[in-house]
Design goal:
With about 500 residues, this protein is an alpha+beta fold. About 15% of the residues lie in helices and about 35% in strands. The strands form 5 sheets. The protein has an 8-stranded mixed beta sheet.
Length: about 500
C-alpha cells in the first residue's frame, strides 16, 4: 500500500527501546563529555570496536523565486573502543551532479540527465504569482556540493583532552563518473579511546530527490535523529527499511519565504510539515550469512517525490508506475534507441547462417558464441551502455556494453531478446511498491522462447545461459518488452544448480 510521507510517518509502529543511562545523549558538538572520553565499552554490545554516540541529520529547505534548495546538515560523534575501530577515522561522503527527476517519461539517457516531467501543462517560464517549474528551470537545479566540513579527534592525555583537527589539505574530492562524486578524508590521531567528531553540510539543488537515510551501521548506534522541515508544496512518498523501527512524529509547521525580486518586502509564511525520526540503541548490522546489502536490514527511510509546485503555481505531477518507467527505458537514448539498431555483427551473423538454425535454443547459443568470441568483459557493472559499434571496436567493455551488443545480435538472428532491468544484490532489494528508475543499477539479457526464458550477462560463467553471477541472482527483475506487456521475473529460479 502506498502512503504519503505524512501518513506513513504518523503510522510508523515499532517497539520503544528501554531507557538506559546511554539514552542521555550529548547533542552539543565540539565538547565531548567526561563520560564519553572515559568510556571503554558499549554496554549493549560489549564486543563492538566502536559506537556511534550521536548522529544528527537536519534537512532544511529554502524556498527561492524559481524553485527550492535543500541542505543536509550532518553531525556525527563516534567513540573508538578498540584499535580496530580506528578505521572509522576514514570518512567518505558521496554526492551527485547533473542528475534528474527520475520519474519522467521523457526520452533521456539512463544516466538520467535533467529532463521534462510528463505534465504538459507547464508554462515556458516562471512567474512569481502564477508560474511553474519547467525543463529549463530544472536544468539550473542539477548539482550538489559539500560545504562547512570540519572534523576533530579528541584524546585523553592524563586529565587533559587534546584536540587534533582535520586540515584542509587532507580533504580529497574524487570524480567517480559524470554523476557521482565523493569527498574523502581521514581524521588525524585516531586510536583506541578517541572520540571522533565530524560535521558538514551537503548543499543540494536537487530538491525533488531526498537522499536515503539509514540510521544503522556496521557498528552500534546509540542515538540517531533525522529532522526534516519540508514545505507542503512538495509531497513525498516514503519507503521504510529495516527490522528495528524508528520512533517518528509529524507536525504542522511553517517556513519563511522572501521574494528575491523585492528584498525589502516582508517575508511570507509558508506552511510546512516537520518530521522527526529517532533511533535509539540500534544494533550493528553486518554483511554475511545471506545479507548482501546493509540496506536490506538497516532502519531508515527512502523518499520519492509524488508532486510539487511553487507558491500559487500549477502542480507538477512526478508520480509514476513501472509501466511508465518501461516506456522511459524504451525511449532512452542510450538503451532504448539502440534496441532498434542492427548489430555491427549483422554481416557475420548472415555469413554464419545463424538465422537458418531451426532450434531456437541452439540459435541463441550460436549468437552468444559469436559475440563473446570478439569482446571481453572488463569487470565493471554499469547501467548505461556505450554504442555497440564502439564496444566491438574496443573488443569489450562493461557488462551492459556487451549486453547491448548481445541484444542487437540476438534480435538480428530472429530471436526475441530484451533487457532485464534489476538492482544488484549488494545495493539492496528492489521493492515493487515504490516505482523509480534510480532503483535500477544494471541490466542483463533475456531471450523469450516457447519453452521458457533464457538469461545471460557478460559476466555469466563461460558465456552460458542461466549461469548468472551471484550478484545478479535477484528475486525481482523486470523483463522490458517492446511490443508486449513487460513482466517481473525471478532470476534465482532460473539459475543452473
Amino acid at each position: 500500500m502506498k502512503l504519503s510521507l505524512v501518513q506513513l510517518l504518523i503510522l510508523l509502529l515499532g517497539p520503544v527501546c528501554m531507557a538506559t543511562a546511554q539514552d542521555k545523549v550529548n547533542m552539543k558538538f565540539g565538547k565531548p563529555t567526561k563520560t564519553e572520553m572515559q568510556m571503554t565499552t558499549y554496554e549493549s554490545e560489549p564486543d563492538a570496536d566502536a559506537v556511534v554516540l550521536c548522529r544528527l541529520t537536519d534537512v532544511e529547505y529554502t524556498i527561492q523565486q524559481t524553485g527550492y534548495l535543500v541542505d543536509y546538515k550532518e553531525k556525527v560523534r563516534i567513540k573508538v573502543l578498540k584499535p580496530s575501530g580506528a578505521r572509522y577515522a576514514k570518512v567518505v561522503i558521496p554526492y551527485l551532479k547533473s542528475t534528474s527527476i527520475d520519474n519522467s517519461n521523457s526520452s533521456s539517457k539512463l544516466v538520467l540527465k535533467v529532463s521534462a516531467t510528463e505534465n504538459n501543462s507547464v508554462s515556458s517560464s516562471f512567474d512569481e504569482q502564477a508560474g511553474a517549474m519547467t525543463t529549463s528551470d530544472l536544468d539550473r537545479y542539477s548539482e550538489e556540493n559539500i560545504e562547512d566540513l570540519k572534523a576533530t579527534a579528541y584524546n585523553l592525555k592524563g586529565s587533559k583532552v587534546v584536540k587534533s583537527a582535520l586540515k584542509k589539505g587532507d580533504i580529497a574530492e574524487t570524480k567517480i563518473d559524470d554523476q557521482h562524486y565523493q569527498v574523502e578524508f581521514t581524521i588525524p590521531d585516531v586510536q583506541e579511546g578517541t572520540v571522533i567528531e565530524y560535521e558538514y553540510t551537503l548543499h543540494s539543488e536537487l530538491f525533488w530527490l531526498l537522499h536515503d537515510w539509514f540510521a544503522q551501521r556496521e557498528i552500534p548506534v546509540a542515538y540517531a535523529k533525522l529532522d526534516m522541515n519540508i514545505p507542503r508544496y512538495l509531497l513525498f512518498e516514503l519507503e521504510e527499511h529495516g527490522i528495528q523501527r524508528l520512533i517518528s512524529t509529524c507536525e504542522s509547521s511553517s517556513m519563511r519565504y522572501k521574494l528575491e525580486s523585492d528584498p525589502l518586502a516582508a517575508p511570507t509564511i509558508v506552511p510546512s510539515n516537520h518530521y522527526i525520526c529517532v533511533g535509539r540503541n540500534l544494533k550493528s548490522v553486518k554483511l554475511g550469512d545471506g545479507l548482501w546489502s546493509m540496506q536490506d536490514n538497516c532502519a531508515g527511510i527512502s523518499a520519492y517525490v509524488k508532486h510539487y509546485s511553487m507558491r500559487g503555481a500549477a502542480v507538477v505531477d512526478c508520480s509514476t508506475t513501472w509501466e511508465k518507467i518501461d516506456e522511459k527505458i524504451l525511449k532512452s537514448e542510450d538503451l532504448g534507441k539502440q534496441l532498434n539498431d542492427h548489430s555491427p555483427l549483422l554481416q557475420q551473423l548472415k555469413d554464419a547462417k545463424v538465422n537458418e538454425i531451426a532450434d531456437l535454443r541452439q540459435r541463441a547459443d550460436a549468437v552468444v558464441k559469436l559475440v563473446m568470441g570478439q569482446v571481453q568483459w572488463n569487470g565493471r557493472y554499469e547501467l548505461s551502455p556505450a554504442d555497440a559499434e564502439e564496444t566491438l571496436k574496443n573488443h569489450g567493455g562493461s557488462n551492459v556494453d556487451i549486453n547491448m551488443l548481445l541484444l542487437q545480435s540476438l534480435n538480428d538472428a530472429g530471436l526475441t531478446a530484451a533487457p532485464v532491468m534489476l538492482r544488484m544484490r549488494d545495493q539492496g532489494v528492489l521493492t515493487k511498491d515504490f516505482p523509480a528508475v534510480r532503483k535500477y543499477t544494471t541490466f542483463i539479457v533475456g531471450v523469450v522462447l516457447p519453452q521458457g526464458n533464457l538469461y545471460i550477462d557478460a559476466s555469466s560463467a563461460n558465456g552460458s545461459f542461466n549461469a548468472l553471477a551471484e550478484l545478479l541472482q535477484v528475486e525481482s527483475a523486470r523483463l522490458v518488452l517492446k511490443d508486449e506487456k513487460s513482466q517481473w521475473v525471478n532470476l534465482q529460479k532460473t539459475v543452473k544448480k
